[in-house]
């Protein structure tokens, strides 16, 4: 019997929370190493990332690499007006931060620090699980699904990439009509693109 979305969330979240501190450290640096050569970052000026929570793959080394390259980074912030949606605020080493209702740190809301969706070159999203077809299972709040539903996938739209541990990959997820699939998911060891998987060295 196929697991429900709720069961999958519980199981995968437990697995990633069991990763050791050293494993998390190593995987986050492997992620940075892969993405430092990614073609979508070579000309990027503004990208959205996230701060790791609940055992998520940590992009902090990637964030710091972006700063070194002069790429502006943005973090998701719960939209106080449009409930259930995300805003993206500029994030730097001295950003004033607060904790949102989910216990996740986010930049303090300042309108002059906000980037609209079409100003971002790449949006890196966290996820709970993904499958071989690019389907993404989030935490259940639908924040990224609602936000990414506004991405038109034209040449001028941001490119969306999911970030996950290898253990978060499943052959096939149960999906819903509102789910927004990802064109690409990157794990510490692989790059998954439109359902096909290849190692980073295959792209060089």
Automatic annotation (TrEMBL):
E.C. code: 6.3.3.2
Organism the protein comes from: Motilimonas cestriensis
Family under the similarity heading: Belongs to the 5-formyltetrahydrofolate cyclo-ligase family.
UniProt cross-references to SUPFAM superfamilies, sorted A to Z: NagB/RpiA/CoA transferase-like (SSF100950)
Protein name in UniProt: 5-formyltetrahydrofolate cyclo-ligase
UniProt keyword Acyltransferase present: no
PANTHER family: 5-FORMYLTETRAHYDROFOLATE CYCLO-LIGASE, ATPASE INHIBITOR/5-FORMYLTETRAHYDROFOLATE CYCLO-LIGASE
Cofactors that this protein relies on: Mg(2+)
UniProt KW keywords: ATP-binding, Ligase, Magnesium, Metal-binding, Nucleotide-binding
GO terms, molecular function: 5-formyltetrahydrofolate cyclo-ligase activity
Enzyme class, spelled out: ligase
Reactions catalysed: (6S)-5-formyl-5,6,7,8-tetrahydrofolate + ATP = (6R)-5,10-methenyltetrahydrofolate + ADP + phosphate
């Amino acid at each position: 019997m196929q697991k429900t979305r709720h069961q999958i969330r519980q199981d995968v979240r437990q697995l990633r929370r069991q990763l050791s501190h050293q494993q998390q450290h190593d995987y986050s640096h492997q992620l940075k190493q892969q993405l430092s050569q990614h073609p979508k970052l070579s000309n990027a000026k503004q990208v959205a990332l996230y701060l790791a929570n609940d055992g998520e793959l940590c992009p902090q080394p990637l964030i710091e690499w972006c700063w070194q390259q002069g790429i502006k980074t943005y973090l998701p912030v719960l939209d106080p007006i449009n409930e259930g949606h995300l805003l993206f605020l500029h994030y730097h080493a001295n950003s004033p931060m607060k904790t949102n209702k989910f216990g996740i740190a986010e930049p303090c809301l300042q309108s002059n620090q906000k980037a609209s969706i079409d100003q971002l070159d790449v949006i890196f999203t966290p996820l709970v699980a993904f499958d071989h077809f690019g389907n993404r299972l989030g935490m259940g709040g639908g924040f990224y699904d609602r936000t990414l539903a506004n991405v038109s996938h034209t040449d001028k739209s941001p490119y969306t990439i999911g970030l996950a541990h290898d253990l978060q990959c499943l052959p096939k997820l149960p999906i819903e009509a509102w789910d927004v699939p990802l064109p690409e998911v990157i794990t510490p060891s692989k790059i998954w693109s439109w359902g096909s998987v290849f190692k980073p060295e295959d792209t060089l």
